[in-house]
Amino acid sequence: MGDIRRRGAALLAAVLAAPLALAVGAAPAGAAGGATVAAACTAGTGPYQRQAEGFLGLPVDGKQSRADCEAIRAFQTKHLITPSAGYAGPLTWRVMDLMNRQRAAGTNPNRDGRCPVDKGRIACVDLTRQLSWIQDGRKLVYGPVPVRTGRDGYETRTGLKKVYWRNIDHVSSIYNVPMPYSQFFDGGQAFHSVAMSVWAPPGSHGCVNMTPKDARKYWELLRNGDEVSVWGRKPGT
Description:
The protein is an alpha+beta fold.
């Protein structure tokens, strides 16, 4: 009888402990090597497999492996690309290709002269490359930095504008979301920081989203009356 009671107590303890073990990520009994159990990454080979492998520094063979799938899925998760399944589809490659073009801008983003050099201090916004920078004449003052502009149907309007109102702790009256370091330059469109990836599709509701670091620097450098030049077309709009 004592032996039966001991076995019963041991079984009860195991049952009670199982949820706790799963909650903290411990592997159930029998898991190989005691590794944490995770859902298998099973996405197939996508049409942009080779490009994604090259971008992520993986062996480029155009064939999906478990490591490839997990790396692609991690990239998708970080930048809010859905579904985040590890499949190298058109949207994932569009974000990667955009990053490549942004890096290629180097320290001379106004190489093609699209942003006016006769306006003194001016904030430049290239929608095509999703890049922004501040220049004074031909001198680069800050940037270039990646930005997230208006999605299809909410495009950031092009043209020459001016910063006309600034609010460091602004909250959107339309979407009820914080817009720190807001600097408005065209109606409800403004530079402001976001607490998410600036590469996350599909885009903003017209504002120029920036990282907190870059939005703070723009706040320090710009003033009411400073001009803003916006041109190009955001990919996907």
